[in-house]
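not sure who needs this but someone in the group chat was asking about General vesicular transport factor p115 from Chelydra serpentina so here u go. i didnt clean anything up, its just raw.
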Amino acid sequence: MNFLRGVMGGPSAGAQPSGTETIQKLCDRVASSTLLDDRRDAVRALKSLSKKYRLEVGFQAMEHLINVLQTDRSDSEIIGYALDTLYNIVSNDLEEEEQEENSQKQADDLGRQFTEIFIKQQENITLLLTFLEEFDFQVRWPGVKLLTSLLKQQGPQVQQIILVSPMGVSRLMDLLADSREVIRNDGVLLLQQLTKSNAAIQKIVAFENAFERLLDIVTDEGNSDGGIVVEDCLLLLQNLLKNNNSNQNFFKEGSYIQRMKPWFEVGDDNSGWSAQKVTNLHLMLQLVRVLVSPTNPPGATSSCQKTMFHCGLLHQLCTILMATGVPADILTETINTVSEVIRGCQINQDYFASVNAPSNPPRPAIVVLLMSMVNERQPFVLRCAVLYCFQCYLYKNQKGQGEIVSTLLPSTIDATGNSVSAGQLLCGGLFSTDSVSNWCAAVALAHALQENATLKEQLLRVQLATSIGNPPVSLLQQCTNILSQGDKIDRRGSKVQTRVGLLMLLCTWLSDCPIAVTHFLHNSANIPFLTGQIAENLGEEEQLVQGLCALLLGICIYYNDNSLENYKKEKLKQLIEKRIGKENFIEKLGFISKHELYSRAAQKPQPSFSSPDHMMFDHEFTKLVKELEGIITKAIYKSSEEDKQEEEVKKSLEQHDNIVTHYKKVIREQDQQLEELKQKVNTLKSQNEQLQTAVTQQMSQIQQHKDQYNLLKVQLEKANIASR
């Protein structure tokens, strides 16, 4: 301070010089003084002024400070002051009382400008990297903070400079091994900024043993019970793994998935979790999801899913799922995580089906989750997560689909009523007075039928008891009854939502299933209802229902087997022409794919809605619409002659297929016969070889016997002669 007072002239020197003048004098001292002590004091004074007079110090002193870094490298104290001053100039971390919107914006602009000046000469970054190799705390720590701030301001440019610097990234990795926690922890923050959106750097960091070091830190800090350091490590791991297939594969091959299992070990008492523990566990769950994301290559996802099953990670997640006292947001994220760990993986889906809740009597986890989905008192995000879990369980899982549908069939329903089944819960949700339950149950049931013609036919057998004294009606009939009643039923939630859900279910059910189409057309009220809905000029909210009605009617035409005289393809098309108009019909059909909520649902499998009112479309259903829209448009415009030709072509193809099938069968039989004959030939060959060997052996023995006989004969003759 005495030095600073001397520069400013002291109290007796008259008027105090301005901050700018003081800074100029200090810069002159740094530039011209031959004594290291003088230069050091001047730099220290600049550091003390750099927060208050950031602009002035930045513009006047930056060049001199960089020069100090180049020329005074032997003195760690002056280097430390210079790095601290540069950090204050570049950093946008204002004091709390200064954090107003305008001042923050100005600070951001200043930080960017000063960063641009500093990195204009790439050698400055290279020089800074050399200081990070110094063990001296007062050099290394400010160096870490300065480089982190530079990356925050101009990330891509600084990343590129570090990338081309010899051993640039490798030098920074050494920070994780520093025994001083403050440097190690700030090193993690530095690597967070360094790895943002740069796949090349992410790969280098990963191959520099980052996974091992970061997982060691997480373990040493107490896993999910650790502090903010664990959070920082998890964020860095996310940077390294998200959308980086190479690193994900490296992580799996390095057996690091197995090291994630202890993260999810929770006790019996889950009350009173700290906010930090919740944050840590949330990030840990997200990290699992990064490895099994539906957007990853299918082979990589499948490999990670199987590893998670074999190492017990899936078991651990299911334990959290069924535990009591787990915070709601963690439970929701755990459900989402389990969903993606089992999605499309048969072994994991089978395991999930076997999980029971710790209740008395035990209930399957699927049933317990479905109970939450159709319970309107549960949080909306939790209900969405359960629906996603159910969808993932059924994804490419015909066995699981069959088990769900079987709980609805008359032969398998529990007559005692002691236990509730998945099918009963879905029917209850489908016909409740809560529109969200209706929608979720309809979509869940549609997923049980996805790409499974056998189950679509089986579901036609389901009968429902509507009220005492009345005969039961089919599930298909009850769906159409509720659809036609529309707003007459008093419901909680969106009026459109229930009808959209039911229409999506019916479209999924009837598509590629002519028998279901015939059952639907048997009810004489269904077609007039659909044509009436499509023909009306309704408000924007109802246009979605009109579009789905048009899709359903189009499915009834395209998948019609012409078995009902009054509802043949041609008659339905004439009805459209007469009551709606073909152009009007196609326009209404186009309402679906043009809807904003349709576009959102098409982006990713997970049902994610900002509010219940936005819950309209299911991801898998958007695929069906995309597939059918063009086909139905063509089918509507086809003439009766073209239809006849198409039918003839279909019949011809069927006949051709039958002939091909017949010949395939003949060829298979001939192949089988040929194979059998080959085996017989081989057997006979083997027997022949054995017999020939036996004959050869017997011939040899006969020859031996002959020789012996001749020898004995000669000996006998000699003996006879001798006796005479």
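also The chain has a mean pLDDT of 88. if thats useful
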